[in-house]
Write the structure tokens for this entry.
Amino acid sequence: MDSAFLSGLAGILAAAAPILFAAIGETLTERAGVTNLSVNGAILLTAMVGFVVAVETNSTVLGFLAGALVGALVTLLLAFATITLKQSQVAVGFVLALLCRDLAYFLGNPYMGVSGPIVAHLPIPLLGEIPIIGQIFFRQNLPVYASYLLVFLAFWWLFKTRPGLMLQGIGERPEAAFARGANVNRMRYFYTILGGALVGIAGPLYSLSVKAGWKGTISGLDGIGWIALAITIFGAWNPMRAALGAYLFAFLQWLGLVLQPSLPGIPSQVLQVAPFPLMILTLLLVNVGNAEWVDRALAAMPEKTRHLIARLLRAMRSSPPAALGVPFDNE
Amino acid sequence: MKSFRWSTIGFQVLAIVLALAFTSLVLVIAGTPPVAAYANILNGAFNSMKSFADVAVAWIPLLIVTAGLLVTFSAGLWNIGIEGQIMLGAIFTTGALRLLQDTALPPALIIVAGFIAGMLGGALWAALAGLLKIYGGVNEICGGLGLNFVATALALWLIFGPWKRPGVGSMSGTEPFPEALWLPLLPGTRLSGWSVAVGLVGIILIYFLLQGTYFGLRLKAVGRNARASFLLGIPTSRYGLLAFMICGALAGVAGAVQVTAVYHRLIPSISSGYGFLGLMVAMLVNYQAIWAVLVSLFFAALNIGSIQLPIVLKVDSSLAGVLQGALVLFFMLMDGVRRRFQSKSRS
């Protein structure tokens, strides 16, 4: 294997890292029963804030902290408006997405094109020496390593711990969880804000590493938050599957860039959005098993085909947490 | 009952005050005197007949899109795919004009054909989002967002590929159409009287559709309680699909207006964000058609008025978006606060 290919693969892992942070943050929030639609704007806003703080303090660490803090504040507002004031999650999230985006463009204007610090490369001493694997996985920077850990941590928390079980409970059957002593709305606040803080790390991860700098409307970050939302669904609210989706997406974008020279008839802008039709197709595949007409169509089929198709659909199928988007009264 | 109304208005005024306070705070952070910024926006929007005509140029597509969104909102649907539907409308209109421009047909007829094609394009794209939701179980928000990106890709491919300008394709769009295929402009402005007429007819039709027809009544029933409506014998999925297609057709008209009256060609950013802005307007007016006319005019004035901000005050024109977003956000927050107060005082 030549080194260009290996560094390409390493690049995919790095490019997927911010999407991972956002998608896993969103996964935790939605598991608690809250849809956070503000991700797209929050990534832009935290990318700008993280960059500005890093430039002013010359510290990327403070940039990331500022990003996480701003991300948490955005979702605190979302939580207050939807949990306490019972406004529509979709409506508030959508408005926040647009508001945060314009705030980022407005306040970030003086910092357009300014050069700033970049997260340092940090090859891991022994692991980085392993041929091939080391080159792909362990010659990255700290936030990318954190993104690997985050996947496993979120998976473990969600499926292997008691609080994680409670988290699933407040998203699936909040009344039952409440009866078992869970303070549903307080936990929803917590996971909404935690998810927002994780989304808030995705922003600086772009502006301080993956797409270093702040370039306003041409930063190329507008749209990534919507992808993260789609990946959350593709991932069936499971951190492992979300990671798969994020890597798949980054791979497809990389493929688009690589194939570009051999497809001169297709403009580069088209190849860059190529993952989206595929995304819709996969969303269709993972969701179609939930549709009523499929059950009816299946019932009419000969038994063997029916079993095969039903099993295929079940394997791909993903259903949202049952109480996603439904407010809960703590009284 | 009367005091109830007054408290509603009180909270709405409070929301406006808070939104202005928030935006002013943002301006202070950016080091710009707020009063100067607001004066500049008002000046940019209303200082001459010409600038007010520019406001109307932005107002019309926004109004048409908002009219369409009133239909999907009535049916309880979030048509986030609206941006793509405007785009497809513009693409279909451009396609029809390209196809017919070299024929012997009278220009007026070609323009009409362009509008019909635009409606068809928008409605088809919206139907796709609707079918994905109804038969594929894909949430309309995800499906719509994905389709938005696909629509943008389609436009880019056309502009750089089959429809590229003689020579080399560029982001500036396709070859402009001959002037005979432009909607006639009012003298001295960039505004077409025809597009104003189309916009007003659109919102009036939607108003009567929702307020005065059996269809509108049943559609709102579906939006309020789909399960109950279904049990009462309303074919809910067909109504949902129809709502999508009506909205898409109107978005397509907005795209056709952009092509025939504003840009006279297809450009990559032809939807100009009017779809998302229309969603904000529809939320802010709480889905009432009459208010949609005024609020979309106000939002268009903010957009046009802020264009000169970078030149005069050296700040970004996205200030308009900050103020619009803050207005909608604080309206929702204050609505929540009011409800909380009232439920408290009742119990």
In short: The first helix of chain A runs from residue 3 to 31.
